[in-house]
Structures are given as structure tokens and as C-alpha cells.
Amino acid sequence: xxxxxxxALIQRGARLRRSPYFDATLRAGCRSYTVYNxxxxxxxxxxxxxxxxxxxxxxxxxxxxxxxxxxxxxxxxFRFTNLLTPRDLSKCAVGQGKYVVITAEDGGIVNDPVLxxxxxxxxxxxxxxxxxxxxxxxxxxxxGMDVTIREPDVSPMQVQGPKSKEVVxxxxxxxxxxxxxxxxxxxxLEGIPVVVTRTGWSGEVGYEIYLRDGSRGVELWDRVMxxxxxxxxxxxxxxxxxxxxxxxxxxxxxxxxDTNPYEVGLGWQVDxxxxxxxxxxxxxxxxxxxxxxxxLAGVEIGGDPLDLNxxxxxxxxxxxxxxxxxxxGFVSSAVHSPRLGRNIGYAMVPTAFAEPGTRLRVTTPDGExxxxxxxxxxxxxxxxxxxx
Length: 388
Description:
It is globular and about 65 Å long. The chain contains ten helices and 21 strands. By secondary structure, the protein is an alpha+beta fold. The protein has a six-stranded mixed β-sheet. The model has no long low-confidence stretch (mean pLDDT 96). The two termini are 39 Å apart.
């Protein structure tokens, strides 16, 4: 019998929060957790390559309650939420979600949440790992806008993989399983209130179930697991292999407050021509006009399979362009892709070194390796899989 994970290895006291699904993740044999948004995020139940294969071929369940929600309501909620992001929210209908970036006055990225529009003046921001609740309250303080900003009792889980559509159909019926990509439906599961979205962090077909009553987390978890039992449903952590293949960025690693949307390939998020104002508008217009000085490029790294990097790896130019071996950038994320048979990742480098075909050298824990800039995403660049 697998022993229960010893939380004392990563916790002291009650400061860090546990999700409504926490007891279920322990019972399921979770073997490691990390801390994310002041909560515990389950990261592994099995070998990471085995979990990756389950995601590609079956259906997986992730506890992602760490995607804490910031809820914005009130008469000025639309105008205020639109102020936070350079993406034009007048193009987001009620019942629709959008992937957005939240920007600072200098164009830096504060967060990259999934935004859900539940009403004309009712929004949720499902957060990456940074304190947007405090940021939003600070912005609102002297804005003169009538808004209420709070963290609601909402806790998402992700159901991902090619068989996820059948699981949600069994749970919620054809209306939910037929949702379009990035749309959602408010519903319930025999009295358990939820919002179900056609979203995910996997690059696969997937859904997120946002529980609206934290007292019923284990109950919801068990019902989801029962619905997929004959489909070999498995609890896993989020798959870094699959998200890197898909070109998905991880806030705090691949982008931070020190990067702007144009540097990381998210310039399409910035709607300069919209009527509404947004924080960082002037700075982002200047960056768009001048062009970014550096870019997050896709890279292939030679040599034997690499584990997911735990630190940023230095990058230097290759060959005659090496500039005396001077460091020009860093690898933010890298991992071995079993399906591609290559080490892939992202490198932040000066724009001149970000063109496909450019050769670089990367210092990994086991020595310096050759690398080459390639287009990203590495798999399914048109997102045909998650939209299917």
C-alpha cells in the first residue's frame, strides 16, 4: 500500500491553504505537491512520462484549485476589467471566456488568467501564480469606479485528454460536451453548483469544472472519477511535457512582470484600436512601434533526454558569433518530448538571435549543449486538437 504523502515536508503551520479536493488527492496517492498562489498544487501521482501518455490517449483529472478566482462585479465592472487587460473585452460575450494578459503601466505582464464573463458586469479571472486580487484592489482604490472585487468560493479542476468529452457528457449531458472552445455553461451536478468551461492547460481536448461550493469538493471529485472509471480515468499533475509541446507559457517562468506581451509572442493580445482604455497602453504602443529587443524563441537542444529544468539555463551564441562566450539569454523551460524524440523548450534571447535556424549553446546541469531556434508551438500549431 502506498504511504500517504508527508505534508510536513513542504508545510509548517496553517498558512498554506488546501483545496476542496485535497483529501481526495492524498487518497489517490499524490506523491508530490508544489506551492502556487498560497495553496498546494498536486504535481505527480505516477512517473511523469506515464502521466503524459495517459493525457495523450485517455482522460486525466487535475486539482487546479490554485487557479484562484478574482471576481469583479458592480455597475463599472466591464469598464474596470477592460482597464486591467489590453484585450478588448467588448468582443467577449456573456457565456464566453478569453485568455488574457494583465499588464502594468510599463507593459510588464502581471498575470495571464483565463477570463470568464458571467454577466454584462460580472467577471472571473482564473489566475496564474501572482496576487492579482491585491493588484486589482489597488487599481480600484482611486479609480472612481463602482466595483466590488473579491475572491469567491470557486475551485476548478481540469478534465483533459481525448476521452474527456465522454466523461463530461456522462456527467452533464450533450449540451456541455458540445461547448465551443473557450465557452462555458453554468449548471449543477445533482445539486453541486458548477461552471463547466471548454478550456485547459494541456493542448488536448479538455474541460474545467469550477466548483462553486467548496464543502463538496471530495463529492465532486468522486463523481468525476466514477464517470470515467471504465475509461481508465487517472488523477495526474499538469503535464509540462505537453504544455511545452503546445507552446503554452507558464507565468513566473516563461513570462514575468519584467517581460511584455511582444517579447513572449502574445502581442496579438494587445488591441490598440479599442475604445476602452487599459493600463500600459502608451508603453505597449511604443514597444509595438519600436519592436521588442528580445524574444522568447522555441529551441531544440541536442544530446540525451533532459529532465524539466529547475533553474534558468544560460544561453550563449554558437561558433563564430559567440562574442567571447558572453551570456546573451536563458532557457526558461525545457524538457524531453517523447513523441518528437527531442529536447524542446523556450529561450529568451536578443531579437537578432531569435530567428529560426539560429544556432546557440545552452549550459545544462550536465554540460554545454548545442541548440537551434525553431518555430513554436512544437505540436499542433493551429490548435486543432483542443478545438476538435
